Every structure is written in C-alpha cells, then in structure tokens.
C-alpha cells in the first residue's frame, strides 16, 4: 500500500473569524487585489508598505469602534494578529462603555461632549465617538 505523499496531505486551515473576513477585504482594497488570504499571511510580504499600512489602519477605524495607534499593522502584520488586536480593542471599548454607563457622568461631561477637543483621539476629539462606536460594535 502506497504512503500518501507530502504534497497530497491536506492542511487544515481554521475558518476565518468575522473580524478576519472584514480585515481581509480591507487588505484587498488597500493592496488593490489579491487572492484568498490566509490567517498567517503577512501584510508587508504581500506588497504592503508604511503608506498602505496607514491607509489600512484608517479603513479599520471606519469599520470598527477602535482608534488604532500608528504602527499597529507594523506590530501585528499578519491577518490573524491584526484581527486579534482589533477584537481586543473592540472588547475594551465595550467594557469601557459599560463602565461609563454604570457610573453617573461628571458634572461638566455634557460640556465636554458638546465642544470636543480637536486633535484628541476618540471621545475627546469627537462628540459622537461613543454613539458610533457602540452602533458598530452592535453590528459586529
């Protein structure tokens, strides 16, 4: 009886998570095409550079309730790593929101939300940040 060759052995690839599916489509968008992406594909090995990484980070922020720091793609260059990083940040947003809703707001909180703080990240720079973030979190 013949032994199966190494080339005929099937490799088990785990099903992509919902976050991996969304981020994979964003990768294809900023890299302008590409085949089926695998969890351990590296953004930079597929042709990404610092500029496309920055565009990807902005697109991820459009799709998820996160505020990524510059260099996130560099620090988590594979589809799986980046998706895990985004999932952790989404969960942190949900926890923060739950804590925020459980406590009474400070006396001047309404004024802070009305005026915002230009240039500041997240809730301080954008009065509608939490509402948009929670709407996105609920849809994912």
State the CATH architecture: Orthogonal Bundle
- Shape category: elongated
| Radius of gyration, whole Å | 19 Å
Would you state the CATH class? Mainly Alpha
**How much helical structure, as a percent, in the residues?**
40-55%
Notable features of this structure?
Non-ribosomal Peptide Synthetase Peptidyl Carrier Protein, Chain A; mainly alpha; 6 helices; elongated; 140 residues
Could you please describe the fold and organization of this structure?
The longest helix is centred in the middle third of the chain and has 24 residues, at 79-102. 18% of the residues are buried. Helix 1 packs across helix 2 (50-63) and helix 1 (18-31) crosses helix 4 (79-102). By secondary structure, the protein is mainly alpha-helical. It has a single domain, classed as Non-ribosomal Peptide Synthetase Peptidyl Carrier Protein, Chain A (Orthogonal Bundle). The chain is built from 6 helices and no strands.
SSE layout and pairing:
Blueprint: H1 18-31, H2 50-63, H3 72-75, H4 79-102, H5 109-115, H6 129-139
Explain briefly what this protein structure is:
The chain is an all-alpha fold and 140 residues long. It contains six helices and no strands. The protein is elongated and about 50 Å long.
């Amino acid at each position: 009886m013949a032994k199966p060759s190494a080339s005929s052995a099937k490799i088990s690839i785990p099903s992509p998570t919902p976050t991996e599916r969304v981020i994979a489509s964003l990768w294809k968008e900023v890299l302008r095409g590409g085949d089926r992406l695998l969890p351990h594909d590296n953004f930079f090995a597929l042709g990404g550079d610092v500029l496309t990484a920055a565009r990807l980070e902005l697109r991820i922020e459009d799709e998820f309730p996160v505020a990524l720091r510059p260099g996130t793609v560099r620090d988590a260059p594979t589809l799986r790593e980046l998706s895990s990083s985004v999932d952790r940040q989404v969960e942190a947003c949900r926890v923060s929101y739950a804590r925020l809703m459980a406590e009474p707001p400070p006396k001047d909180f309404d004024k802070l939300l009305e005026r915002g703080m230009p240039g500041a990240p997240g809730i301080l720079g954008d009065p509608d940040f939490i509402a948009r973030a929670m709407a996105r979190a609920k849809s994912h």
